[in-house]
Design goal:
The structure is a homodimer. Chain A contains nine helices and 16 strands. Chain A is α/β, with parallel strands linked by helices. In chain A, a hairpin with a 3-residue loop joins strand 3 and strand 4. The mean pLDDT of chain A is 93.
């Protein structure tokens, strides 16, 4: 059975994403951090990793972008998961009794309007939504709850106090599936991810994008991250429609190499399907 | 005396930035959140707000970008502050005794290599580096420390256990100064910040950047944020060299309006100086 590393405890959204992505049964391996997911893939401890890259309310997951560059793994797939958050607690507690709420900082951000109703409740960041469920279960001194998935409620035998508490129902997280090897699967609906450094931005970003625009290559996402050794310089990450085997993409990347540094190709994979958690 | 709202407790880097920015003496007002800073400026409770927008190691501060759009205030200045982090604790503790370290999540990220030496120490996020100093001071049950500024050590009478513990010495945070009114100061070295929505990215971002490139307007920063009601659509924030009074910038923004929605002009201000904390 293939092994898939994900960040968090059983019941995390990444594990749910893994269940949707892989048609065959896989063994999902909980990992402490995003970096542990990348490192397990790099060191062949697992076959794949699955990591969030972007949420439609909260924005990009920058650690994932930085780790893609650091570990030079291949992206072999993506999927979008509609995120539904639940406030869950032990059966003995009512909503009005809750003194502490645990969750991942991004989930806390996604439920900020709901949380603003709790004036005297302590809000405590946890490293993962499912880990938050464990903290709520294990806190013996205060009536505690967690913001997590319905699957986490089922897994840890917790009760739902309130459903769909996110600010916005149009809440999707896009996940990437990463692998040590090249993608050898057939790609019918290709998307390609690359990144590159620009020496300075004035004019340079326009020129960089022109290598794609002039060849009618569609750019569907752009993100920038600071380069640690070079203050106020950036690595740009772009997602393109098309394959690294397409001649116009090969030519565009050759052209890009004339005006930018450190181009990395993360691979070509199928545009993701959307599922509901 | 003018009042300036900043996020955090006295001794926070934002307060240090305020001291460098304002040549006259001002009253710096601690605020619980970035949103409270914006709301105090909007409701005329203070004259100015000062907020971090970008760190050269960790990246953009997205909450600030989102609040700029939400509150429609004017940017009247910026500055860069070199960030030096210190591990500080009560005088009675040695480095090897520390069981818990508090700091703001971004400061924890900036000191991740130093922190990786502490295998059995609890790392606890705090809402602010100076607030972390207070938590370290008030924790009576565990020997605790905080990652904060040297000013926070002085303010709360804590001892420095280790200096300059950030991963990278080239660690700068750029701060914006925001105001309810338009900037009426003379701007000798102008930078202008705007944002706009693109209906879809294929080709559209290239066209949007072309309105500046074709007029030789330099773009020094670009950032994108998701639009909550429109999954996988983005607001782009750009900083341009020049003034909103320059004819070529006026023409470029008129041109931009033909191909994008919801253009906001945050104002023209002097390019920031760099200071060391």
């Amino acid at each position: 059975m293939k092994k898939v590393a994900f960040q968090g405890e059983h019941g995390a959204f990444s594990e749910i994403a893994s269940k949707f992505f892989f048609s065959e049964e896989v063994s999902n391996v909980p990992s402490y951090s995003f970096e542990e997911v990348f490192s397990r893939v790099k060191n062949n401890k697992v076959d794949f990793g699955i990591v969030p890259i972007e949420n439609t309310l909260y924005g990009s997951v920058f650690e994932t972008y930085d780790l893609l560059l650091k570990y030079s793994l291949t992206i072999v797939g993506e999927l979008n998961l509609q995120i539904n958050h639940y406030l869950i607690a032990q059966k003995k507690y009512k909503l009005t009794e809750i003194e502490r709420i645990y969750s991942h900082p991004q989930a806390l951000g996604q439920c900020s309007e709901f949380l603003s109703r709790f004036k005297r409740t302590h809000i405590t960041p946890a490293y993962d939504t499912a880990g938050a469920a464990i903290l709520a279960l294990e806190n013996k001194t205060e009536p505690s709850a967690a913001i997590a998935s319905i699957e986490a409620a089922e897994f840890y035998d917790l009760e739902v106090l309130e459903s769909n508490i996110q600010n916005n129902k149009e809440n999707y997280t896009r996940f990437l599936v990463i692998c040590q090897k090249k993608n050898d699967a057939e790609v019918l609906n290709p998307k390609t991810s690359i990144c590159f450094e620009l020496k300075s931005i004035p004019g340079a970003l326009f020129k960089a994008l022109s290598v794609f625009a002039l060849r009618d290559i569609d750019l569907v996402k752009i993100e920038s991250r600071p380069i640690p050794q070079k203050p106020f310089q950036y690595t740009f990450y772009v997602d393109l429609l098309g394959s690294l085997k397409d001649e116009k993409i090969i030519l565009a990347i050759n052209n890009l190499a004339e005006i930018s540094n450190n181009i990395k190709k993360f691979g070509t994979y199928n545009i993701g399907e959307t599922y509901s958690s």
